[in-house]
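Sequence in, structure out.
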Amino acid sequence: MSEAKKQIPISDIILDESIYPRDKIDQRRVGIFAENMRDGFNFDPIEIQRHPERKGKYRILDGVHRWSAYKEETKHTARQAFQNNPGLTSSDIGKAIGRSRQAVDSYIADLRAVIQLELDLRAR
């Protein structure tokens, strides 16, 4: 009997390379999935299982390209949100896209640096 479907935070899902059968993730395929997500396509959920050695984590059994595309899309969305409104905090953006403040900070660090550099140049 299959387990009921439930939502798991993306940050709790990891790629366990010891069970992933492919040599590498096909970035072209990830890009196609990401583009389709932007266009509103729905995909089957990824298949995961509790990680046997990492409490609170799940490992991917099927759907690594869809998972990677989702992560790429959340990064893209975070960057767009910050570019459209630099006053938003990382926490606000993270809550809206289901990612941690730390993840959002890493997504937008370069954008923040550009704004800070522009402010520094104006101040001189």
